[in-house]
Amino acid sequence: MTTDHTAHTGSAPAIIEACDLCKSYPATDGGAPAPVLRGVSLRVSPGEFVAVAGRSGSGKSTLLNVLASLTLPDSGTVLFDGQDITRVSEARRNRLRHSDFAVIFQAHHLMPYLTALENVLLPFMNGLAPVPAAMAEKGRSVLDRVGLSGKAASLPGALSGGEQQRVAIARALVRDARVLFADEPTGNLDTATGEAIMELLAELGRDGLTTVMVTHNPDYARRAHRTLIMRDGLMVDGLA
């Protein structure tokens, strides 16, 4: 048991280091802004699989969105490879989101009129221009890696919920992102399918993909190398 939320594995420099993150959102009744993050700090080493656990409303999804540069904090810093990405231009953050970072959510966000392979290759599709053959082959290889061999030509409507989530994971992997952010990736799945997705994420972690996962499920959190616990916008506990 540890309360050092910047702890990390090994001696490698952190790939992500957040310090004293604060974030509030406007109150729906026009009152004072509601604090969601209240001084959160953490450190993630290259190749580490970190789970951030906590109840709904604890601030864990907001934390992930800040780490993934989907939203900016009100104060505090997020270093990626030593650079404070809260201070760079929106164009630079956009490049990060399309190259170094990949995010998967509860919802699969698949295009219903595109095949599984086309959904995986969506980041590389440019209008009507064909995707280069080498990239298409890489897409098929990544689909194979996530257990969807033979499903490349299937539309999302012909796939199960678990298969659709695997397509979303494949889409994240095909870009060779350095950090995978997963926000409740099993939230809409039944127990057996959720276990299969968690095993896939654990396997990716064993292969060295840096992963930060948000979950409310303590059993899933234990599959990570390290678990951090959030409550009311604070890191309150950690398991080494």
From TrEMBL:
Keyword Nucleotide-binding: yes
Source organism, top-level taxon: Bacteria
Keyword Transport recorded: yes
SUPFAM superfamilies given in the database record: P-loop containing nucleoside triphosphate hydrolases
InterPro entries: AAA+_ATPase (IPR003593), ABC_transporter-like_ATP-bd (IPR003439), ABC_transporter-like_CS (IPR017871), ABC_transpr_LolD-like (IPR015854), MacB-like_ATP-bd (IPR017911), P-loop_NTPase (IPR027417)
ABC transporter domain boundaries: 16-240
Alphabetic keyword roster: ATP-binding, Nucleotide-binding, Transport
GO molecular function: ATP binding
Family designation: Belongs to the ABC transporter superfamily.
Name listed for the protein in its UniProt record: ABC transporter ATP-binding protein
Native source organism of the sequence: Nitratidesulfovibrio liaohensis
